[in-house]
Amino acid sequence: MDDLHGEAATTRETIAYCAELARPYRGLLLGAAAFLFLAVVVQDVASPLVFAAVLDRIATIKRGETLWGRFGTLIVAYAVLLLLGQVLMRMAGWLEWEGSLKTFTHGIHRSFERLLGLGYRWHIDHPAGEVASSLSAFSWALVDGIDTLEWSILRILVIVLSAVVVLGVVAWPVAVVLVALTGVFVAVVVKRSGPVTEASRDFSRAHSRAEGTASDVIRNVSTVLVGAGEHAESARVRELLDGVVRADLRARRQFTVTRVWMGGTIAAMTWGALFVGVVLALRGDIRSGVVYLVLFYASTVSQELITSFQEIRNLVRGLGRAGKLVHLVSTEPEVVDAPGAADLVVPEGALRFDHVRFSYRPDRPLLADFELEVRPGEHVGVVGPSGSGKSTVTRLVLRLMDLQGGRILIDDQDIAGCTQSSLRRAVSYVPQDPQMLHRSIAENIWYGQDGEPDLDRIRAVADAAFVDEFVKDLPEGYETIVGERGLKLSGGQRQRVAIAQAMLKNAPILILDEATSSLDSESERYVQEALWRLMAGSTALVVAHRLSTIAHLDRIIVVEGGRIVETGSHRELLLTSPVGTYRELWEHQSGGFLSA
């Protein structure tokens, strides 16, 4: 299994993916940036200039001058700037909120689609809790990153550049000091960004692992309780959380060292700007208003640069959290539609395995030159010892995995050349342990159908699959929520719901993978009757551990060592001489099941 908590995309890959998600809404985000730029210019350039002009006029005020006559224009100008600044800020805020909200939802949806597209085997190998945790962390890191870029990084950049431009005009020696020490500050940030970034990623990995483990335990709480594993799981989570603390403290140490370097640079900048400004004032090179601008911009730039590192740290930390999900969604799917794949059309329902080869591990082939032809409307049972590849055969028909060799054809169409969605629409599948969505019984039966659930059609198939037998005793009936993975229902009840769903789908090809294994004898008799009605118009492939399930099928194949070793009807296989595998399985079964 991949080490999910140990992998993350690079910063460049993460930024590229986030930019891709934001691209449809770049008009809103760039509009917000433009309004924010104007607002900062108004508030941090124009307003200080008005203050400087006021100070200059105070220094040169003459006896008898009136308030309005001396300062009226500046008072009006300042009022206009205050109002304009607020309007521009609100416009920036509105556009940025709309753009980031749409990017946020688009990011979740796009990433969710990519995760779904990674396929059956990928999801088996990756803990669902950690995957969900990574998606959640990414979505919030994305929107926080947009906020940080616009309201912090951009605003600080504009303030610093404005200060340099203004001081370059009115007191260029001070501007030189600011530029030089800002350059030193940037060099410190660049030099220290590597250790800070790595420490942030370590924290993100530790946090995701702890959160994912806790989520996994909660999802499987019945297993933990039955196994009396509460204390062990609590200790495990406690240990992981201790790792989170250690990782965060390491990140904090890196941050503190960097902050010391930055603090020295900022102190030198503030002192240098003040010293040069005082020297210029003593020499009479600048007026009192310019002295105000020097002091204002020296303190403002110093404070904003200090703030910038905290914001950059938050941004880097967010990129570290986002990088885990970007790494996941950047994985190449194992099963993809071929270029120009056509929809599968199934007029008859013939199914053929043509020299199929498949293995989960290259050194251990599971199916070797597997060949089987199922005629339209034929019902074929598949039996064999555990590990012989019976269930794998059913998953290959659904193309949950790709073959290593050979072909699977439905009505002479290679399923590898058809779209996955059209293939799966043509196949009804009832597994040994159906997984229900955390929705109502009606919604689970209706799943895969278009439009709102039709209760009349749902009740019709539910009655045929004997779902109504237990639903009628539930207080909320078909609106009963089945719980996560359907765990509020028994195994037999889940199978009946899955059978009802397959009946409603009414696909031309039906696959039953141990579909009656969890039913008691009475329920099995009823459900088998329903399955016969379901199979009446379908080509059926039935995998069974309970041989009584398949005794009346048209044909039975015995799979052993990845090959078909016997084929025939139930009666024919029992009468083989010498005694074959099927007869041995039949004679050794217990209570209708194969013996261990």
TrEMBL record:
One MF annotation (Gene Ontology) recorded for this entry: ATP binding
Start and end residues of each ABC transmembrane type-1 domain: 32-317
Annotated TM spans: 29-55, 67-89, 157-190, 260-283
Primary localisation category: membrane
Record localization: Cell membrane
Keyword Manganese: no
Residue runs in coiled coils: none
Domain annotation ABC transporter: ranges: 351-586
Keywords of the record: ATP-binding, Membrane, Nucleotide-binding, Transmembrane, Transmembrane helix
Keyword match Hydrolase: no
InterPro entries, per database record: AAA+_ATPase, ABC1_TM_dom, ABC1_TM_sf, ABC_transporter-like_ATP-bd, ABC_transporter-like_CS, P-loop_NTPase, Type_1_exporter
Membrane topology of the entry: Multi-pass membrane protein
PANTHER family attached to this UniProt entry: ATP-BINDING CASSETTE SUB-FAMILY B, ATP-BINDING CASSETTE SUB-FAMILY B MEMBER 6
Protein's recorded name: ATP-binding cassette domain-containing protein
Species of the source: Acidiferrimicrobium australe
